[in-house]
Design goal:
This protein is an all-beta fold and 341 residues long. It has strands spanning 6-7, 12-19, 25-36, 38-45, 48-54, 61-65, 69-72, 84-89, 92-100, 104-112, 119-121, 131-139, 142-150, 164-173, 176-181, 186-191, 194-198, 202-206, 211-215, 224-228, 231-237, 244-251, 257-262, 268-273, 276-281, 284-289, 295-298, 308-312, 315-324, 326-335. The strands form 7 sheets. The protein has a 5-stranded antiparallel beta sheet with strand order 1-7-6-5-4, with no helix packed on it. Strand 9 and strand 10 form a beta hairpin. It is globular, with a radius of gyration of 20 Å.
């Protein structure tokens, strides 16, 4: 482990794998990480997953690499324990914290495995009320997000007819923040140095903010979209409702659509990797292979609801909580090869 890591020795990793008589892996059971405190805000990148533990007044962020242990970001007690939009890219975690009073005051926090003490990036002025950060997404060493001012806040002065104003697009690369545009579209994902804005129109940018493609879907607005490789998977609504009727994979940069794959109406698209979409529905995590429509559900023991899911090339991560006197969190990992076994 790198110097500076604080190992969470009390967190045990339990892996169960069933092997056939011939030594072939037939059914890969999830590896499960057990932690004290309720888990929220799951984010994976590559073989690592970051998560927030709601416990006490301090921020507690952990990074788990299945098979290699858990690293702890040092607790930060200078802000309220309101970690939001926790995002992992490489070995760096980035999240938003808010101090609430008559107004909201944001703080953009970051820490790395090599430097686990959280520091605040110069994004939010402590005296600048009602500034909000949204759409935080990352991959590799690149993060992107939007900032704007909320006109619904008490006492806010806004341009006529606008709900938000001063919308800006930012990137964080190797820990350095740079403004790259003023798009009104929200960041939905980051992949291989590209930034996806959406959900309608879907706009692809490079890391400098240069437009790579722009697709306008007439007749409906997509609910969500995720970029990976040469495809964008999007959640298509039922008519003008807020419910999903299916997922469609579009080729980049042409925008040519593939077949629509039916999903439950409450499906919430979470991630996309190598032609497989991950989504939540009715308390379960699903993986859907866009090529042939094969769908598999993963459920937590005892019917407990799965809170979030992320899919990376190593496999699927998902989270849930159990209560036995006190809340205790669980992070499960299923290898990519075992998703459809």
């Amino acid at each position: 482990m790198r110097r500076g890591l604080v190992l969470a020795a009390a967190l045990a990793v339990v892996a169960g794998v069933a092997w056939g008589n011939a030594g072939r892996q037939r059914n890969a059971a999830p590896q499960v990480l057990r932690v004290a405190g309720a888990v929220s805000d799951l984010s994976a990148d590559g073989a690592r997953v970051a998560f927030h533990i709601r416990s006490g007044r301090c921020q507690r962020v952990r990074i788990w690499t299945p098979g290699h242990g858990v690293a702890s970001i040092k607790p930060d007690c200078t802000h309220q324990a309101t970690v939001q939009q926790l995002t992992l890219a490489g070995t760096r975690a980035l999240w938003v914290d808010y101090d609430f009073g008559n107004h909201a005051y944001c703080a953009l926090m970051t820490a790395t495995l090599a430097r686990p003490r959280p520091v605040e990036l110069p994004e939010c002025d402590p005296s600048d009320a009602d500034r909000e950060l949204h759409g935080l997404a990352g991959d590799g060493s690149l993060f992107a997000f939007n900032s704007w001012y909320d006109c619904s806040a008490p006492g806010a002065t806004c341009p006529p007819g606008q709900e938000v104003y001063d919308i800006e697009l930012w990137r964080v690369f190797d820990g350095k923040r740079t403004k790259i545009g003023a798009s009104e579209r929200t960041v939905t994902s980051v992949d291989s140095g590209r930034i996806l804005l959406g959900p309608d129109p879907i706009v692809g940018l490079d890391s400098t903010g240069k437009e790579l493609w722009n697709w306008l879907f007439h007749g409906h607005s997509l609910l969500a979209a995720k970029l990976q490789g040469r495809q964008v998977v999007a959640s298509v609504p039922c008519g003008f409702s807020k419910r999903s009727c299916g997922f469609v994979a579009y080729k980049t940069p042409s925008g040519a659509p593939g077949p629509t794959r039916n999903v439950p109406r409450d499906a919430s698209l979470r991630d996309f990797q190598d032609g497989i979409a991950a989504y939540l529905s009715r308390g379960s995590a699903h993986v859907l292979r866009m090529g042939d429509g094969r769908d598999r559900a993963f459920r937590a023991p005892g019917g407990r609801p799965i809170l979030d899911a992320e899919l990376e090339r190593p496999g699927l991560f998902y989270s849930y909580n159990v209560r036995s006197g006190a809340w205790r969190g669980r992070i499960a990992f299923v290898s990519f090869a075992g998703l459809f076994r």
